[in-house]
Amino acid sequence: MTTQITSVLVANRGEIARRVHHTARSLGMTTVAVYSDADSDAPHAREADAAVRLPGNTPAETYLRGEAVIEAARAAGADAIHPGYGFLSENAGFARAVIDAGLTWVGPPPAAIDAMGSKIEAKKMMAEAGVPMLTDLEPADVTEDMLPVLVKASAGGGGRGMRVVRTLDALEDEIAAAKREALSAFGDDAVFCERYLERGRHIEVQVMADAHGTVWAVGERECSIQRRHQKVIEEAPSPLVERTPGMREKLYTAARDAAAAIGYTGAGTVEFLATDAGEFFFLEMNTRLQVEHPVTEATTGLDLVALQLDVAAGLPLPSPEPPAAHGWSLEARLYAEDPANDYTPGSGTLWSLEVPGVVSRFEGPHRPGIRLDSGFEPGDTGAEIGVHYDPMLAKVISYGRTRAEACASLAGALARAEVHGLTTNRAQLVRVLRHPEFVAGNLSTAFLDEHGGEDAPDGPALAAPLADAEATAISALAAALVSGTAEHAAGPVALAQAGFRNVGRTLQKRTYRSGSDELEVAYVRSRSGASPDGELADVVTVEEVGPDAAVFSVRGVRRTLRVSRYPVPGADTVVEVDSPLGPVSLTEPPRYTDPAAEVAAGSLLAPMPGAVIRVAVEVGDTVTAGQPLLWMEAMKMEHTIAAAVDGVVTELPVAVGDQVASGAVLAVVSEPDTDTDPDNAAQE
Q1: Which residues contact 213 (CB under 8 A, 6 or more apart)?
Q2: Which fold does the domain 133-195 belong to in CATH?
Q3: CATH of 7-106, one of 3.40.50.300, 3.40.50.20, 3.30.70.100, 3.40.640.10
Q4: Quick one: average pLDDT of 398-420?
Q5: Which of 214, 264, 336, 557 could bond to 391 as cystine, CB 3.0-4.6 Å?
Q6: Which of these, 277, 259, 321, lies nearest to 113 by C-alpha position?
Q7: Which residue, 217, 306, 211, 294, is CA-closest to 254?
Q8: Residues paired with residue 553 on neighbouring β-strands, in sequence order
Q9: What are the extents of the domains in the chain?
C-alpha cells in the first residue's frame, strides 16, 4: 500500500533541515520547520513554507519534545515527519507516536530502532546473524593484559559517553565520566567495554531497504579522521577497501545481513572497525540518515532523502541493485572549535561564511567541484552561534574524478574560504587533507593524535609561503592601512589619495591581538602614500590601499589582502584579513578599556558558557600545572579546567550546579608566597 506525502515537517534544525527541505520542494511537497527561540531567525525557519515555534532554547525544551513536534505537524497540516539526524531521529517512542498520530514516519520501523537502540543488545543480535564483531568485556572483568579498552555508551553516538582507558587505575573514573555524559546526552547511563584497536579504521556501509524485500548496500565510506571519537573528514569510497581484494563484497554482505536481521526499511548505516589487513568488526547500526551521506550521493548520483521519502510512502526501490559508484568524494565538517585548546567548542558571532568553487548546495554535486551544506546563508552577517547545539558551521564536500583531485579541491576550497568571527578547525582540516600520509590513504582513528602537532586554529599556515609571524605582521599592516583609509574617508574631507597629508611625513601606530599575542604595527604616511616602518620596510612595498583591500609587493611578489572589519559596540573590533598568505584573524582593542573588565593574574576563565558539574579543589589547596581543578559541561560534553601553573588556589567563586558565562572567572591560582621571614624560617 502506498501513501501520498504532500507536506513534510523536519523535526530538526540547521543544515539537515535545509537539506531535507531542498529535496521535498523538488518533489513538489510543502515544507514545515520547527524552531527554538534561539533559531527564530535561522535560515531553516525562514525558508520553509510554514514554521512553528517551540518555546525555549535548550534541546530538552524544544527539539526533543516529541509531543510538541507532532502538534506542530498537525497545526501546519504536515502529513509526514522526517527526523533528520540527532535529536529524536533514533527514538523509537517518538517514531511510534508519529505513526499513532496518523502521520507518515520517514524512517525505519520502530522495532528496528529498538533493536539497534541498545548497542549491547544489538551486538548480540548481530553475532547471531553472523556479522563479525569484537568481544564485549564486563568492566569488572577487565585485566591489565586486556588494555587498552574502550568504554562506550550503550544508547550513544557521536563520541559522547566514550572513553579510551589505558591503565586499570583510571577505569573506574572513566566509566563514571562516560555514564554522566551518556545520561546527559541520551537519558541512559548504561555503558560497556570492548577491545580498543589503537590504529583501527572506521568503515561504514550505507544501506537502503524498502518494504518489498530489496536491500541495497549503496556504497562504503571511510570515516577514520576523528577527534574525540567524532568524525571530522569522511570519504567515499574507502582507500582501504579499494586496495584490499574481496573486502568490499564481505562488507556489503555483512551490512545486508545486519539490515535483514532486524527487518530494516529506509536509510541506515552499518558501521565497522577495520584493521589495515582488511579484517573488520561490527560497531553499531545508525538507524537514520548520516551526517556524511553527501559523499555517497556524489559518487552514486542518488538522492538519499528522496529515496527515504519514497520508501516511507511505500514505494519500491527503483531497481534490484544500486547504481555503480564513480569518482571520489570527501566531506569536511567545519566546526566552531579550537583544536589547539582540546577542541573546545566556540560560541559567538559568525560574521561571514563564504566558500569558493561551490557548484551545488544540498545535492550532488553532479560534476567535479564543491558542494556546500550549511545552516547559514553566505549573505548572513552576524549569525549567533549558541551553546545549546552542535557547533558545526558547514559541511564542505568535494567531488573529483580521482581521490587526489577530490583532496586537492577540498583543501583549496577550505584554504580560500572566508570564515569570519569564530575560531574554527579549518586550518587543521587543510593540514590533514594536504598531509602526505593522508594523501597516500594511510589513515587510522589515531591520525590526529599521531600527526596533530600542528593543530593550531586558523592562521597563515594554511598556505605558508612565508613564516607565520611574518605573514601575520603583513596582514596586520594591511588591516591598519585599510582601517586608516576608511576612517579618513569618513571624515569631513574625503582624501583623494590614501595617506595624503599637508604635513610632510607622519608615523602611525596601531595595536592588534592575534590569539594571545599582541603586536604593534607602525607605518609612515606622506604625500606620496604609505610605507611600513620597522622590520617590514625591507619586505613590503605598498602599491594600493582601498576601503576593503590593500595591494602589497612582498619581496617582489604582488599580493592582494582583503580586509573585513566588524566593530562590536563596547568590545574589541574583529578584523579578518584574507589573502594567499593565509587567513589571519585579529582583534583591535577599544581605545579606552573598562577597569571593571580586568581580571586578576592567574585567573582561569570559562572557555564557553556551561554548567559546573564537579569541583576537585578548595581555596588554599596547593596545585600543580595540568592538575584538573573542576569540570564543566557544555554541548553535552565534559570539559576539564586545569591549573596552568603551579600555585595555590586563592579564589574559587563557583560551585557545582552554577551556570557560567564564557569568560567568567572559575578559579584563581596564585604563585605561593615566598617572602618568608628568615628568623621565623630558622625556627621552623
Answers
A1: none
A2: Dna Ligase; domain 1 (3.30.1490)
A3: 3.40.50.20
A4: 96
A5: 336
A6: 259
A7: 217
A8: 541, 558
A9: 7-106, 133-195, 468-588, 599-670
